[in-house]
Specification:
It is a single chain. The chain has 525 residues and is α/β, with parallel strands linked by helices. It folds into 2 domains: 54 residues, no CATH class; 337 residues, Aldolase class I (TIM Barrel, Alpha-Beta Barrel). 36% of the residues lie in helices and 11% in strands. The strands form 3 sheets. It has an 8-stranded parallel β-sheet with strand order 2-11-10-9-8-5-4-3. Strand 4, helix 7 and strand 5 form a beta-alpha-beta unit. The longest helix has 25 residues. It is globular and about 85 Å long. 47% of the residues are buried. InterPro entries: Aldolase_TIM (IPR013785), GltB (IPR024188), Glu_synthdom (IPR002932). GO terms for molecular function: glutamate synthase activity. This is FMN-binding glutamate synthase family protein. Belongs to the glutamate synthase family. It comes from Knoellia locipacati.
Length: 525
């Protein structure tokens, strides 16, 4: 009798836990997997001990280490993302380790205003105006140097896309639609970058051909601020996109204009142009018809394309407004292993080659450079800015903010947290109202960290950090300046004088009066 009572009480208790898990919205895993999901949180709690004595270190996991994921999780929840007792990295003996060189003195003490890191609402606009140098009708200055990268509805669930869009609206950032078209989930208040892929989803006719009239109607129907032409993706360049049949719902079929029941493979190349000359003609046509800034996104492989592009843009009669360089270490929902592991240069190598090509042509102030590929962590983003990036796009890190646990099930449609799936049950566990706030928290925290490190380097904006401010350690107790590692000439990676002056006046409008240091009673002018 006593055993039955114990079993009965246990069943009632578990039923209560299950009911609570199913009705709460804070944790996607508990909502999708009631009761048993608690095991993960218990294992996570004792994780430091398990890793220290049995399994692995905080830095050993890939693509993102536990330290990196934990930082995003804590930032998105407004929890303490600081660490105690100092670094656990073997700094002197790590090859490729990044060191940011702070300055002892700076032109002005850092500001204490909201825009300088002492409040949740951290404003950190881009240093360049997209479309400004080419006189686009709807040129604009992005309000955030950190924006959400291209992830299509289809690769991600509708709830995930809605969370991203609501989140960027809260954070004042931009949301790239990805090549999968513009869905209702993208229309939740966030400003958009509409991406045109090789299949022309969202702007194609019944035969799958590009349709300019449909593009114009589409961008006028939503808060589209710019257009990005996708040439390739870092994780699978030259392959085209792939949406597995398991992820194609009736809604996706309608938005993309594709059949259900079979994989949706985008072509590897565009049908509208076949060289740099025809590409620039097409870009200018779109820019003139829509009035929007138009840029390109590409991984970096052969150099001839970039040399030809810089040469043809030197005449300044045609050109792209921005270039998004995607590193080979970037993410994807589904791709062959050989492509994710070996095709396309990693971000730093590839970006440096592209930037150097445009620097030699004297064009770096006329084009906005955007980096992507694991740049959603402060140290990686700072190196991107030092190399000459004006903004960074982030993708997998926002997925962590939405609840992703790096299960690496994106290609199976069985994402346990409802982020990268079209399964209705799994997707329902992700609550856009809650997760959008977490995304905004993460974006604001990353901007705040970038701003505080910039101030440590004596400048008011990460775009003013140059290649001399960073060293790369070689693993043998020596370091090499970033400029030497990538062969940068003096001045490369830095903004031109006019751009530097403009962004400084924006970030430090009252630099002489609003500082952390009180006026000195003894210092002389």
């Amino acid at each position: 009798m006593k055993a039955k009572s114990i079993i009965g009480a246990a069943v009632v208790g578990l039923a209560g836990v299950a009911a609570r898990d199913l009705t709460q919205k804070k944790h996607s895993l508990r909502r999708n997997f009631p009761v048993i999901a608690h095991a993960r949180y218990w294992l996570e709690k004792i994780g430091p001990e398990l890793r220290q004595y049995i399994i692995t270190s905080n830095d050993a996991e890939r693509p993102f280490s536990r330290d990196q994921r934990s930082w995003v999780y804590a930032s998105s929840k407004k929890e303490n993302n600081y660490v105690g007792f100092g670094t656990d990295n073997d700094v002197e003996n790590l090859e490729g380790y990044v060191i940011v060189k702070h300055r002892t003195f700076a032109p002005s003490a850092p500001s204490t205003s909201v825009a300088h890191g002492h409040d949740d609402a951290v404003d950190l606009p881009a240093a360049k105006v997209l479309g400004g140098p080419r006189g686009r009708a709807h040129a604009f200055r992005p309000g955030s140097v950190v924006n959400v990268s291209a992830m299509s509805f289809g690769a991600l669930s509708g709830n995930a896309i809605e969370s991203l869009n609501r989140g960027v609206a809260l954070a004042g950032a931009l949301h790239n639609t990805g090549e999968g078209g513009l869905s209702d989930h993208h229309r939740k208040g966030g400003d958009l970058i509409f991406q045109i892929g090789t299949a022309y989803f969202g702007c194609r006719d019944e035969q799958g051909r590009f349709d300019l009239a449909r593009l114009k109607d589409l961008v006028q129907s939503a808060p589209v601020k710019a257009i990005e032409v996708k040439l390739s993706q870092g994780a699978k360049p030259g392959l085209g996109g792939l949406l597995p049949a398991a992820k194609i719902t009736e809604e996706i079929s309608r938005i993309r204009g594709i059949p259900m029941g079979q994989d949706c493979a985008s072509p590897s190349r565009h049908a509208e142009f076949d060289d740099v000359d025809s590409m620039l003609d097409w870009v200018e046509r779109i820019a003139q018809e829509t009035g929007l800034p138009v840029g390109i996104k590409s991984a970096v492989g052969e150099q001839d394309f970039w040399s030809d592009l810089a040469e043809q843009m030197s005449g300044r009669s045609r050109g792209v407004d921005f270039i998004t360089v995607d590193g080979g270490e970037g993410g994807t929902g589904a791709a062959p292993l050989v492509f994710t592991d070996t095709v396309a240069l990693p971000f730093r190598v590839g970006f440096a080659r592209v930037y150097s090509t445009f620097a030699r042509a004297g064009l770096t102030d006329d084009v906005a450079f955007i980096g992507s590929g694991k740049l959603g962590l402060p140290d990686n983003a700072l190196v991107a800015f030092a190399l000459g990036a004006d903004m960074v796009n982030v993708a997998r890190e926002p997925m962590f903010a939405l609840g992703c646990i790096q299960s690496q099930k994106c290609h199976t449609d069985r994402c346990p947290t409802g982020v990268a799936t079209q399964d209705p049950w799994l997707a329902h566990g992700l609550d856009p109202t809650l997760k959008s706030v977490r995304l905004a928290n993460y974006l604001q925290t990353l901007r705040r960290d970038l701003l505080k490190v910039s101030e440590a380097c004596g400048v008011p904006h990460p775009g003013l950090i140059d290649a001399d401010a960073v060293e790369i350690l070689d693993g043998n107790r020596l370091g090499t300046p970033l400029r030497e590692v990538y062969g940068y000439e003096p001045g490369w990676g830095a903004l031109g004088p006019d751009l530097a002056r403009d962004i400084t006046s924006i970030m430090w409008p009252e630099r002489d009066r609003d500082t952390e240091a009180p006026e000195s009673a003894t210092a002389t002018a």
